[in-house]
């Protein structure tokens, strides 16, 4: 292998190491309202799968979560007084400003079943 080829291989390997390091470091960062993963609450037989789900968001940011339900009902976010209907086998997404701090109940309104606890923290 010539010295020019050897330098090129070393340069390419160095760039590959930098790219891998960048990807790993980016994966370790977390952000609340800009995260690409939206929390999902799954409702099975009119109950939250895995128990009442805990949702936490920063006040001043955005509350965003999804409900997937096998039960038709109205989903009510208490305190914020936000309501959305979900069809049997349907999905609804909530997306609203986190103006109020505190702890709030998210429930299947018709069934009176709490499916999530919404915490909006300072």
What features would you describe in this structure?
The termini are far apart. Strand 8 and strand 9 form a beta hairpin. The longest helix has 25 residues, at 3-27. This protein has one helix at 3-27; strands spanning 40-44, 47-48, 53-58, 62-69, 73-77, 82-86, 90-97, 102-108, 113-121. The chain has two domains: 1-30; 40-121, Immunoglobulin-like. Helix content is 20%, strand content 45%. The chain contains one helix and nine strands, in the order αβββββββββ. The protein is of the alpha+beta class. The strands form two sheets. It has a five-stranded mixed sheet with strand order 3-9-8-5-6, with no helix packed on it. Strands 2-1-4-7 form a four-stranded mixed sheet, with no helix packed on it.
Amount of beta strand = over 45%
Assembly annotation: single chain
- Portion of residues in helices? 10-25%
Rg from Cα: 22 Å
Spans where pLDDT lies below 50 across 5 or more residues: 11-35
**In order across it, which strands form the biggest sheet?**
3-9-8-5-6
CATH hierarchy: architecture of the largest domain: Sandwich
**Termini separation (Å)?**
61 Å
CATH top level class name of the largest domain: Mainly Beta
Quick recap of the structure?
The chain has 122 residues and is of the alpha+beta class. The chain is 20% helix and 45% strand.
Ordered list of secondary-structure elements with their pairings:
Elements: H1 3-27, E1 40-44, E2 47-48, E3 53-58, E4 62-69, E5 73-77, E6 82-86, E7 90-97, E8 102-108, E9 113-121
Parallel strand pairs: 1-4, 3-9
Antiparallel strand pairs: 1-2, 4-7, 5-6, 5-8, 8-9
